Amino acid sequence: MDKIKVTITNKQKDIKIPTGLRMLIRRCCNAVLRMEEFEGSVEVSVTLVNDKQIRELNKIYRDIDRVTDVLSFPLGENGQYDTNPENGAKLLGDIVISMETAVEQADRFGHSLQREVGYLTAHSMLHLLGYDHEDNGIQRIRMREKEEKVMTLLGLPSSSSYVMQDEE
What we know:
- The radius of gyration is 16 Å and the shape is globular.
- The protein has five helices and four strands.
- The chain has a four-stranded mixed sheet.
- Helices cover 42% and strands 17% of the residues.
- The protein has one domain (4-153): 3-Layer(aba) Sandwich (Collagenase (Catalytic Domain)).
- It has helices spanning 21-35, 51-62, 99-109, 113-128, 138-153; strands at residues 4-10, 42-49, 70-74, 90-98.
- It has 168 residues and is α/β, with parallel strands linked by helices.
- Helix 1 packs parallel to helix 4 (113-128) and helix 4 crosses helix 5.
- Strand 1 (4-10), helix 1 and strand 2 form a beta-alpha-beta unit.
């Protein structure tokens, strides 16, 4: 991998973006590309929105009228990507993250907003590289393993336990 350009745009005002979150998003993108041994320069766009905005996008592009946590808009198919004519970088696509839902999910899962946004970024980057989980099969498991590997590499491992404790 030569160079990665991650353009981050904040189009919402509901959630204050914590210091270092933009850097974490860039680090997540880099970590996924390194893990996948992606070759060449790339460009990725990440947009932070609120629930209303992501619901509108979900309705327009997927015909699903509900809020979601993240949307991925890949620009490539089967490993073939459009390129930026100015620098030859492969245009991977766009990631859209709902900051409202990220805060809510971080709270629900008992981890930091940084881990949630990092996880959503890693998840979406894998979609931009062609991974899919819609069939609930082996690709879903493979994606989950890769997402957790990236989070561990970044020092944000899962804090959840698979052991249910009885109430006293």
